[in-house]
Amino acid sequence: MHEGSKRLHGASILVVAIQQLKSISGVFVAFIALRFLGGKQNDLGFELILAGLGVLTIIPAVLRYFTIRYELSDDSFTVTSGLLYRQKRTVPLERIQNVSLKRNLLHQVLGVTSLKVETASGGDAEVELNVVGMAEAERLSAALQRVEQAPALETPPEEAIFRASVRDLLLAGATQNRAGVIVIFFLGLLNYAHELLPNLAKNLPSANVMPGASNAAMITGMVVLLLVLLAGWVLSMITSVFVYFGFQLSRSEGVLRLKHGLLTQIQATLPVRRIQSIRIVAPVLQRRLGYCNVYADSAASYADHSAGGAAVLTPLIARERVADVLHLAFPIEPHRATFTKVSPLLRRRSFVRYLIFAVILVGAAEAIVGPLAFAAMPATAAAAWYFACKRFQILGYCLLDGFVLVRDGVWKRTVTIFPENRIQSISLSQGPVQKRLEICTLSLASAAVGVSPAIIADVPYGAAVDLQDALIARSDLSQAGGL
Amino acid sequence: MQESAVERVELVHVAPQALHPAIRNVWRWSGVISWTILSVLFTALELVIVRGAFDKESYIPFIAPVVCLGFATLSWWLADRQYRAWTYQLRTHDLVMSHGLLWKSRRCVARGRVQHIDINSGPLDRRWGLVQVSIYVAGALGSVGSIPGLTPVEAETLREAILEGRYTNA
Question: Exposed (0-12), middle (13-18) or buried (19+): which is A256, by Cβ within 10 Å?
């Protein structure tokens, strides 16, 4: 299949011009404001300047349209651009990590889309076509992924689908940890309010003069603060509905397809064999309700539809259905995982760490509520010990069917799943205290971009070295298919 | 300190390898240089912040140079032990880099995952005829690890040995 070079869709002039107008809209607003403040009604200069700016945004948009050309050949995708500085970028098809379509409202009205092509080089997308027609985009997207259609891993060939309802999305927005923090803060305030307020009033000098007024001001402040927090919570729910509206995940011929968005619609493809790791994340509230999120990490940047550099496979899913989504990418039975715990010394070390944090917190509270805060010390110490024990229960690793699983997180439980052959480097580090206790920390890194390595803290030293050697040997032996 | 790098051409192999001993001089002098610069900066800062710092009887101008001299001495003295802690080892499947005194580190990089290898040398490295090898893998920002204190020949041998067993994506 060889075809001549093509231009972008004609609407690109309009789209780019409007995008540029948007980016300099601040200047326009400033000019108009100046005009009104200046009070001169018949000043032609302003109109001329405004018109000039408008022309300035149109010219590059037109030039762009006439200078950008793309060409799809049998094994590569070439884009030439630039008027004075010509640039020709060739992307080999086999290097393409994913192709995504993004449509905001304007795109939808005009029936066009922007198309991004990413390779493993990280950073921004390698190629962005802004904009091409919808049919052309679908055709390009299929053709660009053509090389990908041989699945590398043994997975069921049939198409499986996951959808998220609006109710799911509302719940997802409501139960992210930031919402959890707000709720806890809210409950904490209610508990302490009656103790907190009189104390504060006593400590303030003005309270001696007008105790009533000061209290009223305090309560108003509290209410405003609560309203702000509540608004943030609602906003979080609304955001997740807008971003993930109509969420749909499907798989065909070794490629995962994602589709979501209300105003800005996103269609992305992610070849299964490009997935570096999958993370199952459950913030505390979602875990209590039996839900979690699933993310897939790849070597491409995923700059636009990202959650910390990862593709969202599900915004919210019931725990018993996680395996179904997981099976789209990895043939693994997560319920069979039995996690190996790390050294019990982790408990002690975590306790000390949490306790230091607690002491700082109590110290800060002392500055606000006075010596009363020290009464909370035993309770915070107990909490520190509780969380240290909890962390020891949770932190662990597991080798299962050619996969490595790492579990961690008291507040935000995360299970990271790597195929063994995706691990590129393993670091073992040992601080002075760890050295005395003969334990160390392992961190496993794949080629996933923008994702921090999976960390297993406080593993007994001997076991850690053995694990490190065994894993890296397996990773190198089974290098099926590179990235 | 005047010893120049003797060319130690050995094949890469199973036993953990030490760096070239001359790297200690690079570390010592880079410590001296950076602490000297810091001492000048801190002294200047004292001059700006503390009023009357440079009165005749004031001891303040001496704080930064003395502290920095202490650290420079410490780093000079530690270079030897740092050197003994540093080893690298090229095995069948990976490259292992171990180093560190207080904070120990042992990093394994899968050979098949190495994307490219840089050999570079700073002015101090060149003074003692040494180079540094940096290993890059996909996805990571910057190098995943680097081995200082190799002779150019050693570095070249190591680079070829790492890339040799690598899969080729034809």
Answer: buried
**Cα separation, B165 vs A149, whole angstroms:** 28
Please answer whether residues A387 and A353 qualify as being in contact, where contact means their C-beta atoms are separated by less than 8 angstroms.
Answer: no
B141 in contact with chain A, both atoms CB, cutoff 8 A: yes
C-alpha A35/C-alpha A426 separation (Å) is 62
Does A122 sit within 8 Å of B108, measured CB to CB?
no
Residue A108 CB contacts under 8 Å (≥ 6 apart), including other chains: A265
Query: CB-based contacts of A35: which residues, under 8 Å, 6+ apart?
Result: A43, A46
Which of residues 54 through 113 in chain B touch A, CB cutoff 8 A? 92-94, 100, 102-113
Summarised one tens digit per residue, pLDDT across range A167-215 is 888 888 888 756 555 555 655 565 555 555 555 545 544 444 444 556 7
Residue B132 backbone phi and psi in degrees, to 5: -125, 135
pLDDT given for residue A193 in this prediction: 56
Dist. CA A71–CA A271, nearest whole Å: 22
pLDDT in tens, A393-424: 999 999 988 899 999 998 889 999 999 888 98
Q: Which residues of A touch B108 (CB under 8 A)?
A: 425-427, 468-469, 472
> Contacts of residue B167 in chain A, CB cutoff 8 Å?
479, 482
Would you tell me how many other CB atoms lie within 10 Å of the CB of residue A223?
10
ipTM of the complex: 0.81
DSSP class per residue in A345-404: HHHHHHHHHHHHHHHHHHHHHHHHH-GGGGGGHHHHHHHHHHHHHHHHHH-EEEEETTEE
Q: Which of A274, A472, A479 to mutate to test the interface with B (most CBs of B within 10 A)?
A: A472
CA-based nearest distance B77→chain A, Å: 19
**Residue A131, pLDDT above cutoff 50:** yes
Burial per residue of A347-370, b for 16 or more beta-carbon CB atoms within 10 angstroms, e otherwise: bebbbeebbeebeeebeebeeebe
Tokens of A382: 């107990």
pLDDT at position A310: 61
* Least confident among A193-197, B36-40, B66-70, B166-170: B166-170
Q: Would you call A482 and B169 a contact, using CB atoms and an 8 Å cutoff?
A: yes
- Selecting from B107, B141, B167 the residue whose C-beta is nearest the C-beta of A425 gives B107
Across the interface, of B94, B103, B167, the residue whose CB is closest to A472 is: B94
Distance from CA of A243 to the nearest CA of B (A): 27
CA atoms of B170 and B168, how far apart (whole Å): 6
What is the Cα–Cα distance from A308 to A319, expressed in whole angstroms?
A: 22
* Residues A482, B169 contacting (CB under 8 angstroms): yes
Pairing of strands A127-133, A112-118: antiparallel
**Whether A423 and B110 lie within 8 Å, measured CB to CB:** yes
Kindly list the strands in the beta sheet with A454-460, ordered across the sheet, starting from the edge strand earlier in the chain. Answer: A454-460, A439-445, A425-430, B104-110, B94-99, B87-90, B17-18
3-state helix, strand, coil in chain A (%, to 5): 50, 25, 25
Of the candidates A122, A424, A428, the beta carbon closest to that of B105 is on A428
